[in-house]
Amino acid sequence: MSARDLSTLIPAARDGKPTLVIKNARVINVFTNEITEASVAIAGDTIIGVGNYSCENEFNAHGAYLAPGLIDGHVHIESSMVTPASFAQVILPKGTTTIIADPHEIANVSGADGLKAMFALSRGLPLDIRFMLPSCVPSTPFEHSGATLNAADLGAFLDEPNVLGLGEVMDYVSVVSCAPDMLEKLKRFYDRPIDGHAPMLTGKALNAYCVAGPRTDHECSNFRELKEKLRNGMYILIRMGSAANGVLEMLDGIVSEGLPTDRICFCTDDKHLENIRSEGHINHIVNTAISRGIRPLDALRMATLNTANAFGLSRIGAIAPGYRANLILFNNLHTIEPKTVFTNGVPFDATAPVPSPAVSDCVKNSVHAAPVTADDLKLPVQDFMPIIETVPHQLVTRLVYRVVPHDASGCFVASEGLNKLAVIERHHATGHVGVGIVDGMHVQGGAIGATVAHDSHNIVIVGDNDADMLFAVETLRRAGGGFTVVSNGEVKALLELPIAGLMSDAPVETVLEKQRALLDAARALGTDDACDPLVLLSFLALPVIPEARLTDCGLFDVSTMSFLYRT
Amino acid sequence: MSARDLSTLIPAARDGKPTLVIKNARVINVFTNEITEASVAIAGDTIIGVGNYSCENEFNAHGAYLAPGLIDGHVHIESSMVTPASFAQVILPKGTTTIIADPHEIANVSGADGLKAMFALSRGLPLDIRFMLPSCVPSTPFEHSGATLNAADLGAFLDEPNVLGLGEVMDYVSVVSCAPDMLEKLKRFYDRPIDGHAPMLTGKALNAYCVAGPRTDHECSNFRELKEKLRNGMYILIRMGSAANGVLEMLDGIVSEGLPTDRICFCTDDKHLENIRSEGHINHIVNTAISRGIRPLDALRMATLNTANAFGLSRIGAIAPGYRANLILFNNLHTIEPKTVFTNGVPFDATAPVPSPAVSDCVKNSVHAAPVTADDLKLPVQDFMPIIETVPHQLVTRLVYRVVPHDASGCFVASEGLNKLAVIERHHATGHVGVGIVDGMHVQGGAIGATVAHDSHNIVIVGDNDADMLFAVETLRRAGGGFTVVSNGEVKALLELPIAGLMSDAPVETVLEKQRALLDAARALGTDDACDPLVLLSFLALPVIPEARLTDCGLFDVSTMSFLYRT
User: Fold this and answer.
1) Cβ A26 vs Cβ A297: under 8 Å
2) Which of A3, A203, A208 is facing B10, going by the closest CB pair?
3) ipTM > 0.90?
């Protein structure tokens, strides 16, 4: 509903004239913690009453539970590699009807154009998408991103429909040290929701961060951290997506200490489409919470009303007159698997594809790398060479020093299990190329490359020979972005990501199929089960995760926040 | 704090450099329901940390409890008859540090000028005053008020600092029937807080009202009503001021059913200054709630964080970094009597008067009544004359029909315990005069008059002889508004209310003294203990309280919403 619908909705509610009635439901009221057997009356996209209703268009719930649609408090749609429409198609059947999205990835590639493209791609979908504006573009000064968004750039979007506030303020160093542009952003969004992102921040530094304005946090990884942030007034978004550190311990702490849950919510941040299909989405977190002893109605409220409150949304997250008719129907109060999901008052048909708005041209053809030659991939070695060592099943890496093989000219030769890693600036054809060494990827006889490389999304390539690495770059360039696995001059697998080099416009099933093919091809090159080599590769260029990372500027030591060498 | 203070507050929090430390307190955390022994660090007007702190300026709490300052969710300052500064002086010692004020009364007299005057009078006070813009000016079409505020008039104030949203939407008939100007107001404030006011509204009419936007209600008078409105998503403001219907029953219901309290708050609406002095203010409601079995920390949260949430205020109502340093210190967790109250980080000195900003000229000299003569007060009688009968200890009245005494010309003569009542239009000198008969006031040998006459605040006079009634009108006219008791052409008591005829600019003690003198003088005329004759008089012209009222247009039957006669 919008303000202009009041003149039809008020009479519909007053006169009891719904356009749809959901009959025989056990209706969950998140305000009173009650379950009542009733009908829910809907006019258009809005609930107009709970009680006794009938009309021509009735949906029989046959005694199933009816709850508000679930809300994901923090998610990056781009990380799913599909459009918002396709993302909707995957998560709606799991009961998530609203997401708070942070288009941080596309903004790092395409700046304000990227934001506009995401807003356009999100319009008119059955999924309710609200936006937090990315606060850290670029994420760090240690790499070259496609764009810079300063306070004034973000301010221009304040009145955009569905823009709520300022997205995760990852750069807590800038906050706590009062860096001028960060301060300017915080001032401009002073009266809006501001998302925090402050892993392990504690004590006075956390106090300073909270004074600065962030009011949510989705980075808690243990109960002690959760409790300190809750005490400080932050809404806690328990994250259970690709990352899910400490979730069980946090839930257990909440239960055992009887903490109030009304400022605790759920989010996924990033979650693989296949895992959403197999495990669920926000409902999976609800079910996990229930399994650890959170009362079902509390868990449902954490996934609905609490999140709406955290973001100041007053007409979603509950079943009451005036609330949007986003609803989920399910049989078992302890394991929520939606049978039917209503969005905007319409049962969602999971069998039909969700039509997507057109992709705007400004986010296509985003791969603008300068020509790369074998010379650009040369890496002169030192006696003890700093290299990146992967850690099984984790995204953190170790910084180690080794004697490494080299050729007659003193340049590194990938062998003895060591791979060459390259990060190639791809936004403004500056010719910046970072070259490094990685141990633990085990790529043999080929190369793997991607234009998804957090957070600046340059081209990242790992391989054991320069020819295949150069071929991978060319393959990605021709595809307009994506993921590829190549071997001996042949493309073994390719997922084209023509939207900013981050997202596909192909149907979900095609994307999933190509992702599986990529993984198979990577495995065929020797990568093992200790990691998803494609995900790991995407994170090797992110200079905020310990200990060593490669950017287009060189090899970076995250613990000292300085370059070990520049290339 | 404001956005521009971030550059000093962030470093103060980071480096642990407070300007004031409250030591040895038992600090109440409304987010986690914890009490911890700690110090609270404050920089300027803002809390920057809870823990171990010291600085040159320390305040020893000696182990007392420290809670956030209390919030009154709905109040009309004008009804206290003093300026916002004087009102602050009376309520701050009771621990109320923020009020959500609805300047409905002054708006009915002076329109937009009245609003501006109230904003100006509220600036820079130690009391945090937020405003809801009066939605119903005039309140009804059955009387003449001083001004009309339509949707555009209100919209002009949307960006005024401290304006939150739309004040109590009393005219629920207009809402439910989609009256165009009301709809326009609701649309304009669609994304802002809107206060409800819907006594006894239930079922589909309540649903329609909720769809329209009001998200709070302070008119519940029984638990059943409270629960229905809570289910419908309204924040409930339990009112305990001059009116306090059903409070105990509602509190008992909440306790016995174990209802969640996080959407239940407190307000006073109107409360006499003397009663605030003797009983308390919001702390009195907190104490009452505790005495009925609400847990003390829940009751405190109802009076702080919950109210802040209801109005979307993110930096008040808690003790946490970034929150305003409005705090109360008290010894007994079950009977909250503040020993010290901090506002904006400063202990409030209850012994010194709070300086008031200047009163703007546009709200002075507001009494513009046409000349009134004995002829204007003539009331031709009928065989069975409809009259207003008061009900002991209540503001409701009965409509009864009587044979009444009259003179040779067939006009009513006040005698046999019946008084004459007159309402004289006083805003635009239109000459409208309503004349009626009231039984139960028992005024003998004089008249009582006021320019406070809800909601249009015309002149209302009750008396037993026309000469004194006319003299009372002239006394009020000369005083520029107020309350008066006159007898035999002599002023027995007078409280001048030069600000819009509603508020005094005199010191609180002077106002209280004159109020007592007025009551004494009214008692001397024969009014009895069954009512406060001054309060009752102020409500006899309000055509929304059953059953019979007199406006400047005539005698009004509230149950049929029609005039019994026009004069």
Assistant:
1) no
2) A208
3) yes
Is there a contact between B211 and A187 if contact means CB atoms under 8 Å apart?
no
What pLDDT sits at residue B85? 98
Cβ pair B514, B82 in contact under 8 A: no
Chain A positions in Cβ-Cβ contact with residue B49 (cut-off 8 Å): 204, 207
d(CA B262, CA A260) in angstroms, rounded, equals: 10
Model confidence over B249-283: pLDDT tens digits? 999 999 999 999 999 999 999 999 999 999 999 99
pLDDT, residue A28, reads 98
Is B318:A233 a contact under the CB 8 Å cutoff?
A: yes
CB B468 within 8 A of CB B482: no
| Mode of pairing for the β-strands spanning A346-347 and A216-217 | unpaired
Q: B318: distance to nearest CA of chain A, Å? A: 8
Please give the single-letter amino acid code of residue B372: V
Q: Look up residue B141 and give its DSSP letter.
A: T
Which of B49, B183, B309 has the CB atom closest to A7's CB atom?
Answer: B183
Pairwise CA distance, residues A242 & A502, whole Å: 17
Q: What is the dihedral of CA A191, A197, A198, A203, to 10 degrees?
A: 30
* pTM score of the predicted model: 0.96
DSSP strands (E only) in A440-481: 447-450, 459-463
pLDDT tens, position by position, B397-418? 999 999 999 999 999 999 988 9
**Alpha-carbon distances of A466 from A435, A445, A448, B211, B268, rounded to whole Å:** 11, 10, 12, 65, 77
A35 touching chain B per CB within 8 A: no
- Given a contact cutoff of 8 angstroms between Cβ atoms, the answer to whether A55 and A312 are in contact is no
Assess B158–A contact: CB distance below 8 Å, yes or no.
no
* Residues sharing a CB contact under 8 Å with residue B395, sequence separation 6 or more, in sequence order: B243, B535, B536, B539, B545
Neighbours of A509 (CB within 10 A): 10
Q: Which residues pair with A551 in a beta bridge?
A: A554
Residues of A in contact with B163 (CB under 8 A): none
- Distance in angstroms (rounded) separating the CA atoms of residues B161 and B116: 11
Q: What φ, ψ does residue B225 adopt, rounded to 5°?
A: -65, -45
**Chain-centre distance of CA B273, in angstroms?**
11
Minimal CA–CA distance to B451: which of B475, B418, B431? B475
